[in-house]
Every structure is written in structure tokens, then in C-alpha cells.
Design a protein that fits this description.
The protein is mostly helical and 130 residues long. The chain is 78% helix and 0% strand. It has one domain.
């Protein structure tokens, strides 16, 4: 369970991104004719949960690096690329609107940077100490 916790957190980002996208489409198309408060709440909760789960994933990576536990960066980076591909399909392969309006894309970019830092630390590509 502990070894796959990172994978489960990334899968939760997938789920909340789908909930966010579906509720956004429903909320935006029916907002003019119907006033339904529940979809606005689901939309906002999913938006916040994407960031909360992403931050939990980053904290898990920091914990694992601090305790010298193994991290499967290859599998986790592949899962994150799945989120990028899903967003590319949802936004019609337009990169700039995807980066601006997708909360999952912002979290994925931050996770990619953390993966890069973990990789640099593990491989010791840059030695910062004398």
C-alpha cells in the first residue's frame, strides 16, 4: 500500500480532473437557463481537491526522499503524462488555454519539476557541496 501511494494520488488527480471538467461543462451550459447550486459546489470542490491531492503527492515525494525510500519516477512520470494527454484532448490540442485554465495542468507542471529535482538528487548530476 505504501509503495503505491504515489500512484493512487496521481489517479485521484485523474478522477478530480474528470469531475471538474464534467461539472464545468454542465455548469457552463445550463447556467443560463437553470440555477443549480450543486454543480457549482462540485465544480469548486473538484478544483480545490486537484491542488490538495497534488500537494499531498509532493509531500509524499519529499517524505520518501528524506527517508531514502525508493521512488518509481518512471511510472509516476508516465501517469502524469497521461494527465497531460487527457488535457490536450479535452482542450483540442491548444496548449496555451490548457495551461491557463486547467488546474490539473498547473499541478502536473509542479510535479514534473519536483520529479526533476528528485532525479537530480538521486543521480547527483550536480554536486553542490565541496
Amino acid at each position: 500500500m505504501k509503495k503505491k501511494l504515489g500512484m493512487y494520488l496521481i489517479c485521484l488527480i485523474y478522477i478530480f480532473e474528470l469531475i471538474y471538467t464534467m461539472s464545468a461543462m454542465y455548469f457552463n451550459s445550463f447556467m443560463v437557463t437553470h440555477k443549480i447550486e450543486i454543480f457549482e459546489n462540485i465544480y469548486q470542490i473538484a478544483y480545490c481537491m486537484i491542488f490538495i491531492v497534488g500537494i499531498l503527492y509532493i509531500l509524499l515525494l519529499i517524505y520518501k526522499v528524506g527517508h531514502h525510500e525508493s521512488i518509481d519516477l518512471k511510472k509516476n512520470t508516465g501517469l502524469l503524462f497521461g494527465i497531460v494527454f487527457m488535457d490536450l484532448v479535452l482542450y483540442g490540442f491548444f496548449i496555451i488555454p490548457m495551461l491557463v485554465s486547467s488546474p490539473a495542468m498547473k499541478m502536473v507542471c509542479i510535479c514534473f519539476l519536483v520529479h526533476l529535482l528528485v532525479y537530480i538528487k538521486e543521480k547527483q548530476l550536480f554536486v553542490l557541496e565541496k
